[in-house]
UniProtKB/TrEMBL annotation:
Residues 21-49, 119-147 have a biased composition (Basic and acidic residues). InterPro entries: R3H_dom, R3H_dom_sf, R3H_sperm-antigen, SPAG7. Residues 46-109 form the R3H domain. One of its GO terms (molecular function) is nucleic acid binding. Coiled coil: none annotated. Residues 1-49, 118-160 are annotated as: Disordered. This is Sperm associated antigen 7. It comes from Bos taurus. The gene is SPAG7.
Amino acid sequence: MADLLGSILSSMEKPPSLGDQETRRKAREQAARLKKLQEQEKQQKVEFRKRMEKEVSDFIQDSGQIKKKFQPMNKIERSILHDVVEVAGLTSFSFGEDDECRYVMIFKKEFAPSDEELDSYRRGEEWDPQKAEEKRRLKELAQRQEEEAAQQGPVVVSPASDYKDKYSHLIGKGAAKDAAHMLQANKTYGCGEATVGLGGGGRGAQ
């Protein structure tokens, strides 16, 4: 038992084997590569931000442009651009279904897009102000016609069937038929209307 413990202790005290040294060297190299990549990525982000700041600045100074569409970007790039736009006091939106195809559009504050325009971009369509105006006019016209029709009052619709037939299951078929016959008889003989009596006193009055 003592020999086993001694051999374990002596093996622990030995300098690291060649295999251990190789593993440590590889780990150091990997750490150095990772650090270099992180620095490169950081530098790329800084350069990208500078490029976006230049493009946004040019856009602001160009009085002929009211909006600008950028090429599709990854999530990090879109995030940087949105930040640049916000700092510049502009408005920006991302459009596109797939993450790889998503792109950013920026707008000058005084030309911020309407909900209809945004919906058009979300559907992947180009915004056509003339078509939108025509659509709006037609909608207003339809609304005015509806309002005018409502002011004229309800349209009287004559029922297709007699109410007694409709509710015969409630008042009983026999009662419904009797009521229907009575109504028909009244119409035929003019009951319910002012009629001249044909009694014996009729002749004497002439």
